[in-house]
Amino acid sequence: MKNFKIFSILFLFVFGLNSCSSDDDFTAETPEPTADFSFEAVADNPQLISFTNLSVDADEFMWDFGDGVGVSTQKHPSYEYASAGSYTVKLTAVNGGNSSTYSEEVSVVGVPSAAFTYEVDEENSYTIHFKNQSQNVTQYVWDFGDGSEISSEATPSHTYTETGIYTVTLTATGAGGTAEASMEVEVKDAQPAFSNLYIVGDASESGWNIGSPVAFTQSETNPFVFVYEGVLTPGNIKFSTFTGDWCDGQWINAAENGTSIPEASAYIVTQGCDGPDNQWQVTEETQGRYRITLNLADETVNFEEQNAPYSELYLIGDASENGWNIGSPEAGFTQSNTDPFIFTYLGILTPGEFKISTYTGDWCDADWLHPRQADASPSAGNFEAHLGCTGPDYKWRITEENKGEYLITVDLYEGTINFEVQ
Fold first, then answer.
1. Looking at the structure, do residues 160 and 213 belong to the same domain, yes or no?
2. Residue-wise pLDDT tens digits, 281-328
3. Which residue, 108, 128, 144, sits at the end of a domain?
4. Domain assignment present for 141
5. Is the model's pLDDT at 348 over the cut of 50?
6. Cα Rg for the chain, rounded, in angstroms?
7. What is the pLDDT of residues 246-277, one digit of tens each?
């Protein structure tokens, strides 16, 4: 009986336990997540932000970095912004079906960069204007490379005292750090707009040949000055700054069309065939040998007529028809109408010798033209000019073998003489 009671009590206890477990069965609740984070800029790269996830009770994460581009599902991401600015970063922390969102404004400081360009002042080539192209900086230190004081201006100008190549350094500082840029700056004397100049026109030796016209000579001491010397005949001229086709480049034209060369003083620059096609005019009265000086600095042109050192020449000697008559020789050279430096003589030369006088009168009154050696034969070459009786008294010699009629041409500009048998 006693055993029966114990069994009954155990049965009821076990039954009670089973009944309780069945009635109270339940599923544990998922905790609500809490989203949170902190951030800091990465050293030496302020646009790279490192985020530290401080969320609680979450196992999935969605980041929106606020620039319309960047997202991430990493727990502790880093993100590099393309530019400085303020961005609202949002973190969504997820735990099962539960989520939490946390947002914070992140101020991104730009990475500093230093850069600059420069240009030369139009009026003073020693003055350099610097253009600052730095980014994300607020303070500047300029070292102009010539030992002068530094500048803290954003866009300074600096005048050097002499030509040379200088290393200019810009140190730029901003909230994100410091950057530096250096550049070599060449300081030199001002240079003209054109490096070549040519004469073109039917009044010049070039004719209207733009393909290969005769060039001016640029001054070695002043690159703005160009000089041409030559014979101008009746017609028109203008100046090109190029060779090739008519419309390829810029022209230097008369300020007014038809300006006579002695009256020229100013010019205009025209582009290609756009005109106006103003030209200088050479007439019968103004033709001759000229020295043309064009100054690009003060924009002037000058036509200076060149006069020959002598206005008359005579053959003197027993080989010529004048004999040794220096007082009143009858047969003289003829001076060219177009080039006053050119003299010609047509006549008979007989055995004997001669030299050329530049005057009439007494033997020692003025210059004589001589060959460069004694007893020179009548052939092309150079001559020398000597005053009066200062000598040496060299002469040209005519023999039985080379006597005859000659056309003699003396070029006082080139200092040459030519004998052409007729």
1. no
2. 999 999 999 999 999 999 999 999 999 999 999 999 999 999 999 999
3. 108
4. yes
5. yes
6. 49
7. 999 999 999 999 999 999 999 999 999 998 99
**Domain membership flag for residue 18:** no
List the CATH number of the domain containing 72.
Answer: 2.60.40.10
Domain count, the chain: 4
Tokens read off for 77? 């991401």
In a domain, 9, yes or no: no
Size (the chain), residues: 422
Residues 289, 413 contacting (CB under 8 angstroms): yes
* Residues contacting residue 93 through CB under 8 Å, at least 6 positions apart: 33, 34, 35, 36, 53, 55, 58, 60, 61, 99, 100, 101, 102
Does 330 share its domain with 392? yes
From 143, 168, 187, give the residue that closes a domain.
187
Q: What is the CATH number of the domain that holds 332?
A: 2.60.40.3620
Q: Which 3 state secondary structure label does DSSP give 220?
A: coil
Does the structure show a pLDDT above 90 at 190?
no
How many CA atoms lie less than 13 Å away from 50 in the CB half-sphere? 6
Domain ranges, residue 277: 198-305
Q: CA–CA separation, 93 vs 37, rounded Å? A: 10
Q: Determine, yes or no, domain membership for 266.
A: yes
Contact 161, 266 (CB under 8 A): no
- Answer yes or no: are the C-beta atoms of 149 and 216 closer than 8 Å: no
Query: Any idea of the CA torsion for 74, 77, 83, 89, to the nearest 10 degrees?
Result: 70
pTM over 0.70, yes/no: no
Distance CA 176, CA 31 (A): 42
DSSP code per residue over 248-305 = SSEEEEESSTTEEGGG--BEEEEETT-S----EEE-TTT-EEEEEEEETTTTEEEEEE
SS3 content of the chain, % helix, strand, coil (to 5): 5, 45, 45
